[in-house]
From TrEMBL:
<feature type="domain" description="EXPERA">
    <location>
        <begin position="25"/>
        <end position="149"/>
    </location>
</feature>
<keyword id="KW-0756">Sterol biosynthesis</keyword>
<comment type="similarity">
    <text>Belongs to the EBP family.</text>
</comment>
<keyword id="KW-0812">Transmembrane</keyword>
<keyword id="KW-0472">Membrane</keyword>
<dbReference type="GO" id="GO:0000247">
    <property type="term" value="F:C-8 sterol isomerase activity"/>
</dbReference>
<protein>
    <recommendedName>
        <fullName>EXPERA domain-containing protein</fullName>
    </recommendedName>
</protein>
<keyword id="KW-0444">Lipid biosynthesis</keyword>
<feature type="transmembrane region" description="Helical">
    <location>
        <begin position="22"/>
        <end position="47"/>
    </location>
</feature>
<keyword id="KW-1207">Sterol metabolism</keyword>
<dbReference type="InterPro" id="IPR033118">
    <property type="entry name" value="EXPERA"/>
</dbReference>
<dbReference type="Pfam" id="PF05241">
    <property type="entry name" value="EBP"/>
</dbReference>
<keyword id="KW-0413">Isomerase</keyword>
<keyword id="KW-0752">Steroid biosynthesis</keyword>
<feature type="transmembrane region" description="Helical">
    <location>
        <begin position="130"/>
        <end position="150"/>
    </location>
</feature>
<dbReference type="GO" id="GO:0005783">
    <property type="term" value="C:endoplasmic reticulum"/>
</dbReference>
<dbReference type="GO" id="GO:0016020">
    <property type="term" value="C:membrane"/>
</dbReference>
């Protein structure tokens, strides 16, 4: 097995017992997505009522909350899957798509928090549920998309600058 080509750096790295992956990258991504969907679905089913202690708008089926969650599922869900495909296959539009999904997520999160604030922000059963569930559980929906959006913005600007330099040289 030694000497069998591998995808790791440095190329001359010795990996005794290395066995190439028998699954394609798209298969691995597909299995990961299905497993993630299953985990998310089970988590929602089991924890929905518990999470509602931090934000009772879910239990009450608040119109604004249902709308934001519905749009997120219908628009951002498929766009996120397309972004995973674009990243995995190295498509040129992957950064633009990631940026768009992140902006959508940040917009939805802003609407989610602002509607709660405008309605008095009185949806949690206790300070614990407010800070752990409402603030803590939702923090990742701000932090992660913001970090990804900033990274994508830099990549897009860098690509635009390189393209602009190439155009200037060809004139």
């Amino acid at each position: 097995m030694e000497g069998q080509p591998h995808p790791y750096a440095p190329r001359d790295l010795k990996l005794p017992g290395y066995v190439p992956n028998f699954l394609t990258q798209s298969t691995i991504v597909g299995v990961y997505l299905l497993a993630s969907l299953l985990v998310v679905s089970l988590t929602w089913i089991l924890s929905g009522k518990e999470y509602s202690k931090g934000d009772s708008r879910y239990a009450a089926r608040d119109a604004a909350t249902v709308t934001v969650e519905g749009l997120t599922a219908v628009l951002e869900g498929p766009a996120s899957l397309l972004a995973v495909y674009a990243i995995a296959s190295g498509k040129s539009y992957s950064y633009v798509l990631q940026f768009a999904v992140c902006l959508g997520q940040l917009y939805g999160t802003a609407v989610y928090f602002l509607t709660a604030y405008l309605e008095g922000d009185h949806f949690a059963t206790s300070p614990y549920h407010y800070y752990v569930y409402y603030v803590g559980a939702n923090a990742s929906w701000v932090v992660i998309p913001a970090l990804i959006a900033m990274r994508c913005w830099k990549k897009i600007c860098s690509a635009a600058q390189v393209h602009g330099q190439k155009r200037t040289k060809t004139r």
